[in-house]
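Recall from the previous chapter that SMILES is a line notation for molecules. Here it describes zinc ion.
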Amino acid sequence: MQCELCGMGSSGCRPALVDGVRMMLCPGCMKHGKSVKDVAPVDVQKSILGRIKRPRERDVYVEMDTKLVSGWNDLIKRARKEKELSREKLGFNIGERTITISKIENGDLRPSDEVVGKLEKELGITLVEKAKEVPNIPSGSRPGSGLTLGDFLKTENK
Ligand SMILES: [Zn+2]
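With both inputs in hand, we obtain:
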């Protein structure tokens, strides 16, 4: 059994609510969560979560400005383990809470651009996919844009 907050293996992990998210916590992390009494066995929860999570992720993240590489949460987790950092330590290093790191690694939370930048730097990984979009400079040839380069420059000089 592995604690979902600190990632440490522990035989005494119990279900608890952390910021409304159900997680398995080791005794050391219990103080961060609210104990849950009647919950379904973990594997059942995991398999249900695994099934409903995939499509939802895609719907939510497609609207974001920055495109993250697929499997970004696993990438973060792997890189952190390679560096032998605990979630607490990684969170401390980039100024985020442990629960935030946990949610990010579980794919429950999409890190903000700022956090993505810090994670890339701290872990030496690349999380952002190169944008294939049109450059963000208005040009007359761009469909739907009424601005010419001249208009753009005028705006800039204001
Ligand atoms: Zn723990």
